[in-house]
Write a structure and sequence with these properties.
Blueprint: H1 2-39, H2 44-50, H3 60-76, E1 88-99, H4 103-117, H5 121-130, H6 134-182, H7 201-219, H8 230-285, H9 292-299, H10 313-324, H11 333-370, H12 374-398, H13 404-415, H14 420-445, H15 447-450, H16 455-471, H17 489-512, H18 516-527, H19 537-542, H20 547-550, H21 559-565, H22 572-596, H23 603-628, E2 630-632, E3 640-642, H24 643-650, H25 657-672, E4 680-692, H26 697-705, E5 712-714, E6 717-727
Antiparallel strand pairs: 1-4, 2-3, 4-6, 5-6
């Protein structure tokens, strides 16, 4: 009996132990199957419209309980047959998490959806389209940026030079007023004359001998004899005193003007040198532009040939030569040294004039007060001659109209501005054309004022966007920035080339590695609708929107534009899209314009002509896109680009993943009514089952105490708990 009891105990323990192992495995399978069953109830609309998986509207606990009941019922069977496992469901629970509205979850599902669907060849397609023009666009970007920056510095430098020349001329005009007091317009006549009207210093000297005679005559009369010339001599003294006072004041004012000029000009000369040095630095740094690597990477990419003609190599060389000619804009140091010396000499020469005037005034005062007779006439005449000599020396160089130095310096300045008038004319035409482009874009932006009926949907979309940003613990509804059209041709050219730098940078990054952004962008292109450019025909033709256009400004007709730019109104996203299209077209057309106008010689004139060419053709391209639905990439690369192609490329320029994903999720909620922040993609469940122990519950409980059982024994039942999870 003892042997039998030992064998029975041993066998009983192992039978229940085997049943416990079986129920553990069975429970684990049930847990996993229940999780799959629960998550099979995904939202069909999200999947059909957007290829996304998220749990639907079902009750997860009920689904899980139903599966477990059915499974255990099938396992236990019917009737009184013997069952090795008589498993019973004790409890079950389910918990959902990882909502679709989380950036990481949403992006992972995009990657899963697009890794099989995304046209990987698009990467090569984009590169092959732009590769033939990469070298020319690199040179055009460098040249436009360089010349636009130089143009700003050049204008500042030349404005200061003009200020200095104007200072010299204004000082010369003040000096010329003094000349009128010396001899007047009739020349220097110092022959003796009788007392009469006095209007110049020469009159004072010429009439002094007669004044001396008449004053001496009256002085020699007896006291009781009437004075014969007293009124004439008194009038002479009065007028001579008045004129010398006026002349002295005029000379003082002119001397002050020269002194002020001498005080102000050194700082201006220093600033001009600084600007000239800045221009040198800009030119020196031009060839080390960090954006060059982006163009070169695309140019050197090893992509299959696409049969697209390349931009002729001589175009790149022509544009490069234009950039090299920028050295012509630099002024030599000798220019500033000579110019500064001329201004200093002008002040010194007028100081001599002022000294001569003071000397004459002193002689005249002595002659009138002390009455030195005929000797006074000779002294005054000599003093007038000295004044005239000093002034003639000054005026021969610094007369504002005919001075040799002024004329020569003006001619020197005009020589290095040989094309300024034509350049300014072209820039003014460019500004007028930019106004036309701005009006086109502004007319699109103003559509929001006519489409007020659509604003309720945009406001709702904005609420969804802000809520998703907050759900992802990001700041919410900051205002999107409108893509504007600069009213300065140089600035517009720089901005357009900067956009092209970004576009080639995006292509360069795609060649380096297939970024997650590429899948996100392709998802946006495939799943969301873009605007039909043909709807804008009437607006572009008449500047007034028609009812058909107003009715198409709803959210659903410009989803892709909203994802790109984020304006919550009917016109902002379209205006931004066409603003960027204009910028891209301006960059490409300016490259063509540089090659077309290289023969004009002066680099800033070439840039002005190229920008005018680019602006005019970019506007024509906008009209062509609206009227025909596509346009030619470049006159050198005759392939077609559609409106959607442009949107696809602009996605490479906008890399704020968080905001763009929130916009996509807001659109998904807007179109389906399902809030992604409430749509879980992950479930974790727990199942607790039990079986009745057949033999020795106490013995099994003891095994549980020492850790040999993964479960619990209560009374005569063993309980197994298993957890499982599932994620889309």
């Amino acid at each position: 009996m003892m042997i039998f009891a030992s064998i029975f105990t041993f066998m009983a323990v192992f039978i229940d132990y085997a049943r416990i192992a079986a129920v553990q495995m069975h429970t684990e399978q049930l847990a996993k199957a229940s999780m799959r069953s629960v998550m099979s109830a995904f939202d069909p609309e999200l999947h059909e419209k957007y290829g996304l998986f998220a749990f639907g509207e079902s009750d997860g606990n009920e689904l899980m309980a139903s599966l477990l009941r059915d499974s255990l019922h099938m396992q236990s069977g019917r009737g009184a047959a013997f069952h090795l496992l008589d498993t019973r469901l004790d409890t079950q629970s389910v918990a959902f998490s990882r909502e679709l509205g989380q950036y990481a979850i949403f992006e992972r599902q995009i990657l899963e959806e697009m890794k099989y669907k995304a046209p990987i060849d698009f990467t090569l397609e984009v590169v092959n389209r732009f590769k033939p023009m990469s070298a020319a666009m690199k040179e055009a970007s460098n040249t436009t940026d360089l010349l636009a920056r130089l143009g700003k510095l050049f204008d500042k430098r030349e404005a200061l030079i003009d200020e200095i020349v104007n200072e010299m001329k204004e000082a010369g005009k003040k000096a010329r007023q003094v000349a009128g007091y010396i001899a007047g317009s009739g020349g220097l006549d110092l022959s003796d004359r009788t007392i009469g009207s006095i209007s110049t210093a020469a009159d004072i000297a010429a009439q002094y001998a007669d004044y001396a005679y008449k004053r001496s005559y009256d002085a020699n009369l007896d006291e009781d004899e009437p004075k014969r010339y007293v009124w004439e001599t008194a009038l002479y003294e009065y007028e001579a005193s008045q004129l010398t006072g006026q002349m002295t004041r005029a000379a003082g004012q002119a001397e002050n003007r020269h002194r002020q000029m001498a005080d102000k000009l050194p700082a201006k000369f220093d600033r001009i040198r600084e600007l000239n040095d800045e221009m040198k630095q800009v030119i020196a740094a031009a060839d080390s532009n960090p954006n060059n690597a982006k163009y070169e990477k695309v140019e050197d990419s090893d992509t299959p040939p696409a049969g697209i003609p390349a931009v002729p190599a001589d175009i790149s060389e022509t544009v490069k030569r234009i950039r090299s000619s920028a050295e012509e804009l630099i002024l030599p140091d000798s220019f500033f040294d000579e110019f500064r010396s001329e201004t200093e000499r002008q002040s010194a020469l007028f100081a001599s004039v002022a000294t001569a005037v003071d000397r004459f005034q002193s002689h005249a005062a002595d002659a009138l007060s002390d009455f030195i007779g005929n000797a006074g006439a000779g002294s005054l005449k000599q003093s007038v001659r000295e004044m005239k000599k000093e002034f003639d020396k000054y005026a021969s160089d610094y007369d504002p109209d005919s001075g040799r130095t002024i004329v020569a310096r003006t001619a020197e300045i005009e020589r290095h501005r040989s094309s300024e008038r034509e350049r300014k004319n072209l820039e003014n035409k460019g500004k007028q054309q930019l106004k036309q482009a701005k009006n086109l874009i502004d007319n699109i932006a103003k559509l929001k004022d006519r489409a007020k009926a659509q604003m309720e949907n945009y406001n709702r979309l904005e609420q969804y966007y802000d809520a998703n940003r907050a759900f992802n613990e990001q700041s919410g509804g900051e205002e999107a920035k409108q893509v504007g059209v600069s009213q300065d041709p140089g600035d517009a050219g720089k901005e357009s080339m900067s956009m092209m730098d970004g576009l080639f940078g995006g292509m360069s990054d795609m060649l380096a590695e297939l970024r997650d952004e590429f899948y996100r962008n392709e998802y946006a292109v495939h799943q969301f609708r873009s605007f039909d450019p043909a709807k804008l025909k009437h607006l572009f033709a008449s500047s007034q929107p028609d009812d058909a256009l107003i009715n198409t400004l709803g959210v659903n007709n410009q989803e892709l534009e909203y994802i790109l730019y984020g304006f919550h109104n009917p016109g902002g996203n379209l205006a931004a899209a066409y603003g960027e299209i204009f910028g891209m077209r301006l960059a490409i057309r300016t490259m063509e314009g540089l090659a077309e106008n290289a023969r004009m010689g002066h680099p800033l004139l070439v840039l002005a002509a190229a920008l005018l060419y680019g602006i005019e053709h970019a506007i024509a391209d906008l009209l062509e896109l609206v009227n025909k639905g596509s346009l030619t990439l470049s006159k050198y690369v005759p392939i077609k680009l559609t409106y959607k192609d442009h949107m696809r490329m602009f996605l490479m320029l906008h890399t704020d993943n968080g905001k763009m994903m929130s916009r996509m999720l807001a659109l998904i909620q807007f179109n389906t009514g399902a809030n992604p922040a409430e749509k879980p993609t992950y479930v974790r469940g727990e199942v607790r089952t039990s079986i009745r122990l057949w033999f020795m519950p106490g013995m099994m409980r003891m095994l549980g105490y020492v850790g040999l059982l993964h479960g619990e024994v209560e009374n005569n039942r063993y309980y197994a708990t298993k957890k499982a999870a599932f994620s889309y």
